[in-house]
Specification:
about 50% helix, 3-stranded antiparallel beta sheet, two-stranded antiparallel ribbon, flat
């Protein structure tokens, strides 16, 4: 059979007939067993852990991967923070970008969008993110011919213990074999995610290796804590008998003391008694174990999330630095690396199988949106808008996730109309001699307002229409003349053009109101 012209990212030819067959399936015997035969964490001690980590670094990572699996099952804190980091990435919006605006490139992007919108795609992301803990993860697309095209109908997560790295570079993944030499994987068969959490061999990059010592120490500490609670969780029971007690009576007392611990009830002769004695400093021992467990949990949080301030201690980082409890720089790196894996092992293979090799390919992007403090934005925008800063309403609505109201729709409005900021400082009572002059906007506000202050505020509320007949001739003259001397010479002739009747009436009415309020106050 002639070799296919389609090649994978490493330049190896892909054979379409091999893609329609599953690479490996679980069995009850042999290398590819689904069930774990023995536990590693049950017999973990410093010597055993050192042996496991050294073996993994030298290419035998079976026990290490088993330990990494059991760590997620037995340590609630590690499982929680690792799950948080995984879900922070898998929950990001998946966007497909066309290689260009060319019609053909847009068509390829539409096909890839259909691929990522399949429900099994999101499950595959969770499986690939298992590599964060173990150093690598493998998913096998199960290809089928549908309408003459290759489509992955599901993605099978493959146990990482079924694979090994080549003995020369430690980078190329192989299938495990009975002889230990490893079997080469056909090109295009697998999606292999190897996040670059640290430089070097992939098997040494998972956070499980980083956390393993803390996991072991915490397990020891919890065992000691439980022993401590069993011994010192209740008072010490002391049975006392008289000098004439017989051996049978002493045996009865011994059974009574023992039964009291389990049954909270005992029977003994009248002349005997049981005393309960509290153990001094027992509480201090419990606090020691608790502090040790909390400290180890914080180290695990640092190793997995990059920080501890969003887990258990009640603190919080800036929203700009943290997203769903994961540091933004870590989240961006995880998302970028996972997208690169998908584009290399899935998108390129999918496009090549159905449309042939391309010069440019559409690409998957996991969008990381920077968190924004909307409250700070709203507080900052208010004063700027009051000062006349033009702000597009649709942009602000988009930031808050709100839609523009439709015509005729009921909209929310403030209960009391806010006065323009330019008027607020004029309405603030001031005790200084220059009360009528402008006052700084950031000046300290007076604590109280009397009735005259309210009267002034009411009269100034509509000063623009009242002053308009007086000021219009002045503004018209200013627009008409070209020099200041002409403007000054024309002012004298404006008196007849000014209509000050409304202004005089308002001033007289305001004076009357002020005089009336003053007279009433004097009488009271």
């Amino acid at each position: 059979m002639a070799e296919s012209v389609i090649v994978d990212a490493q330049g190896r030819p892909i054979h379409k007939t091999e893609l329609l067959q599953e690479l490996v399936q679980a069995s009850t015997t042999g290398v590819y067993q689904a069930w774990t035969v023995e536990s590693v964490s049950a017999t973990l001690d410093p010597a055993r852990l050192r042996s496991i980590l050294n073996a993994a670094a030298q290419g035998d990572h079976y026990s290490y991967l088993t330990l990494a699996e059991e760590m997620e099952e037995k340590d609630p804190h590690y499982a929680a923070v690792l799950g948080t980091r995984k879900r922070a990435v898998s929950g990001l919006p998946v966007v497909v970008e066309a290689a260009s605006e060319d019609e053909h490139d847009e068509q390829l992007a539409d096909v890839v969008r259909e691929l990522v919108e399949a429900p099994e795609f999101s499950d595959m992301l969770d499986d690939l993110l298992d590599a964060i803990g173990k150093g690598f993860s493998v998913a096998e697309p199960i290809w089928q011919l549908i309408g003459g095209q290759f489509w992955p109908t599901r993605y099978e997560h493959r146990d990482p213990r079924w694979f090994q790295f080549d003995k020369v570079t430690g980078q190329r993944l192989q299938l495990r074999s009975e002889g230990g030499d490893g079997l080469e994987i056909p090109p295009g068969k697998l999606i292999v995610h190897k996040p670059r959490l640290k430089s070097g061999l992939p098997i040494r990059g998972g956070v499980a290796r980083l956390v393993a010592v803390s996991f072991m120490c915490k397990a020891f500490g919890l065992k000691d804590w439980m022993r401590f609670a069993e011994l010192y969780g209740m008072p010490l029971r002391i049975g006392r008998y008289g000098p004439g007690a017989k051996s049978d009576d002493i045996a009865v007392l011994r059974r009574a003391v023992a039964q009291l611990a389990a049954d909270a009830a005992a029977v003994m002769p009248e002349g005997m008694k049981i005393e309960f004695q509290e153990i001094a400093n027992a509480a201090g021992g419990a606090e020691l174990f608790e502090r040790m467990a909390e400290w180890l949990d914080k180290q695990i949080s640092k190793g997995v999330l990059g920080q501890t301030m969003t887990t258990d201690d009640g603190s919080s980082q800036s929203q700009a630095n943290v997203h769903n409890e994961v540091r933004m720089d870590i989240l961006r790196a995880d998302a970028k690396q996972l997208a690169a894996t998908l584009n290399r092992d899935l998108v390129q293979t999918f496009i090549d199988l159905n449309y042939g090799p391309q010069d440019r390919y559409p690409r998957i992007v996991l969008q990381v949106t920077e968190a924004e403090d909307l409250k700070a934005l709203a507080d900052a925008l208010g004063p700027f808008i009051d000062r006349g800063l033009p702000v597009e309403a649709s942009a602000i609505l988009d930031k808050f996730g709100l839609s523009a109201p439709q015509s005729g729709a009921q909209v929310l409005r403030p209960q009391h109309s806010m006065q323009p900021l330019a008027l607020n400082h004029q309405q603030t009572p001031c005790a200084c001699p220059a009360c009528g002059k402008h006052k700084a906007l950031n000046a300290e506000q007076q604590p109280t307002r009397d009735e005259l202050d309210e009267l002034v505020a009411d009269e100034l509320g509509d000063w623009v229409p009242v002053m308009k007949p007086v000021l219009d001739p002045v503004q018209a003259l200013a627009q008409k003349v070209e020099t200041f001397d002409e403007f000054r010479a024309g002012l004298a002739g404006l008196l007849d053009q000014m209509d000050d009747s409304a202004l005089i009436e308002r001033l007289a009415l305001a004076t009357f109101k002020a005089r009336a309020k003053g007279d009433v106050s004097d009488q009271l």
